[in-house]
Amino acid sequence: MSGVKEECGVFGIYDLDGGNIAPSIYYGLTSLQHRGQESCGMAVSRTDGERGNVQFHKDLGLVSEVLRKDVVHNMNGDIGIGHVRYSTTGESVAENAQPLVLSYIKGSLALAHNGNLVNTEALKWELIQTGAIFHTTTDSEVIAFHIARERVHSATVEEAVHKTVEKIRGGYALVIMSPRKLIGARDPYGLKPLCLGKRDNAYVLASESCALTSVGAEFIRDIEPGEIVTITRDGLKSSKLAEQKKHAHCVFEYIYFARLDSTMDGVKIYDARIRGGKSLAKSYPVEADLVTGVPESGLPAAKGYSEESGIPFGFAFYKNSYIGRTFIKPTQQERESSVHLKLSVLESVVKGKRIVLVDDSIVRGTTIANLIHMLKEAGAKEVHVRISSPPFLHPCYFGTDVPSNDQLIAAQHSTEEIRKMIGADSLGYMQIDYLEGMAGGLPLCKACFDGNYPMEIPEEIKQD
C-alpha cells in the first residue's frame, strides 16, 4: 500500500503476581510494529515500590533499534505500557514519541494513544489559558494533561479518565498507567481497536490480538466502544460512557492495517480480506492466466479473487525483506525508487501471461504504475488491476493519515483516467456496498470513501 500511513499501536500489561513485564512489552510492541515504524517506547513501574517511580525509554526508530537488549534488561516493573507510532498529528521528532510520562501533584501518569481527536484545539486552548506549557505537538499530550487536571478534583484516576473521555471527540484507544492501576479506554464509536487478554495472573491490553499471542496471553474479549476498563490488584472492573448507539469501526483495519493473524471485533482479518477479493472477482471478472497480489498487503485479497474466479494464484514479485523502512521516504522521488529496491518481478512467472494484479488501495498512483511497468517489462501481455477498497475521495480526521484531496488521484480523476495514467489494461475498485459484508456485517466508518463522517467535524479542521 502506498501513501496511507499506518496508525499507532498500544500495549499495556499488569502482572498481579509481581513478575517483570518489560520483556513482554518488547515482544508485544514487536508484534505491533506493522502499525507504526516511526518511533516507539515503553514505561514501567513497580506497584509495590515508591509511587511515581517510572522508568521509561523512547525514541525515533523501530522497536529493535530503540528498545535494545541492554535497555530492556535495565527496566523492571510489574506494570507498564508501550507504543509504536506513525505520526498523524505532530511532527516526526523524538519529543512526540510515546508513551507520555507526566509527574504531577498526585504522582505519575503514563499514557499511550492510538487515534486522532477532532476537538484538540479547543481542549488545548482551555489548558493554555490556565498556564499549561506543552512539550509536544501531539493531541496525546492534551489528553494526558486533561486527565492529570481532572485527577486533582477526582477520587480516583479512573474517574479522571472518565471525565476526560467525556470531553474528547474523535477516534482513540488509550492505555494509561498510574502508580497502582492499568486503564484502557476506547472511543464510543469503536473507531480504534483495543482488546483484552490474560496470561496466568497478568492482564494485557493491546491494539490487536496478535500482540496477545506474542506474549502467550489468551484473548478474552474486545474492549467495547465507549468502555473504560481498570485493572488493579483486586482484578478488573469496567465502566461505560453514555450509550452511543451508532458504531463505526475503521474500515481500513479490515482492508489493510491489522495484521493478518489478528481477530478484531469478532472478525478474523484473513477471512475479511479473502471475502474482499471474492467480491472483487464477482464485480470485475476478466479473462486472465494468473492472479497475483502486491506484497504483502494485496496477497490475501488476490487469493480470494483467485478462489472466486478460478484463475490460478501465484507470486509474481520477490520482496526484499532487508531493505527496512523505505516506504517512509519523505519525497515522491525517494518513494518511487524504493519500490525497485523492495520488489523485483519473477520474469518466468509472468512472461507471456495476462495478469490480474490486486492491491488494497491506490492513493497517489505512483507505486502501482511502477509495478505495472515492471510487469510489462518482464513480458506480461496484459495487467488488469483490482483494488480491494473503493477510491479515496475524502480526508480522514481520526488517525488514518490519508493525504489531502489534491494528492488523492481518485479525487482528481475518473477511474478510466486513472487506468490510463497507471498503464493498466483494466481497473476495478471494490464497490462500497460490499465493505460491510467483507467485515462480517460490522458497522463501519467509510468516510474516506463516501464522506459520511460518524461525527461532526469542526469547520476549522476541514479547512486545514
Automatic annotation (TrEMBL):
UniProt cross-references to InterPro entries, sorted A to Z: GATase_2_dom, Ntn_hydrolases_N, PRTase-like, PRTase_dom, PurF, PurF_N
Residues binding Mg(2+), per UniProt: S297, D359, D360
Catalytic activity: 5-phospho-beta-D-ribosylamine + L-glutamate + diphosphate = 5-phospho-alpha-D-ribose 1-diphosphate + L-glutamine + H2O
GO function terms (MF aspect): amidophosphoribosyltransferase activity
CDD domains, per database record: GPATase_N, PRTases_typeI
Textual note on the cofactor: Binds 1 [4Fe-4S] cluster per subunit. Binds 1 Mg(2+) ion per subunit.
Co-factor(s): [4Fe-4S] cluster; Mg(2+)
Record keywords: 4Fe-4S, Glutamine amidotransferase, Glycosyltransferase, Iron, Iron-sulfur, Magnesium, Metal-binding, Purine biosynthesis, Transferase
Span of domain Glutamine amidotransferase type-2: 8-234
UniProt pathway annotation: Purine metabolism; IMP biosynthesis via de novo pathway; N(1)-(5-phospho-D-ribosyl)glycinamide from 5-phospho-alpha-D-ribose 1-diphosphate: step 1/2
Binding site for [4Fe-4S] cluster: C250, C396, C445, C448
Listed EC numbers: 2.4.2.14
Residues at the active site: C8 (nucleophile)
Gene3D superfamilies, sorted: 3.40.50.2020, Glutamine Phosphoribosylpyrophosphate, subunit 1, domain 1
PANTHER family: AMIDOPHOSPHORIBOSYLTRANSFERASE
NCBIfam families: purF
Function: Catalyzes the formation of phosphoribosylamine from phosphoribosylpyrophosphate (PRPP) and glutamine.
Family: In the C-terminal section; belongs to the purine/pyrimidine phosphoribosyltransferase family.
Protein name per its UniProtKB record: Amidophosphoribosyltransferase
